[in-house]
Predict the structure.
Amino acid sequence: MTCVALIDANRNIREFCRRELVRDGYELALFRTPQEAAARIRDVLPDIVVVDADAFASDAGTFAPLLETLSIPVILHDAAPSDAPLPGGGPVARVVKSGDLGPLKHAIGRAVGSRRRGTRGGQPRARVDRRE
């Protein structure tokens, strides 16, 4: 099962994404800020991180290198369409927030690809799907 860490300050967005992604079989770990995620990311070891683009930009100096060290791909979840290039430090895609999570699910599937699911480095992953 693919584990997604979702970082967004907006509780409604976190809950909507959690509900829709869990319905499709994903495990979710929800965080309000990159700092909160950074403090707990080693416990969760997600397959991918979906982070609000503004939050990522505000803390890319510490959060992005951590994700890069852990080899965790990043999808920027953006409020508006953007042609700006993806920033360095790990983002593999940019997806516009909307009521249709199809593009986000597609980006998650592409980014995770053939990554090993269910364990990381032989270590079982802790159960997640926390409501934050």
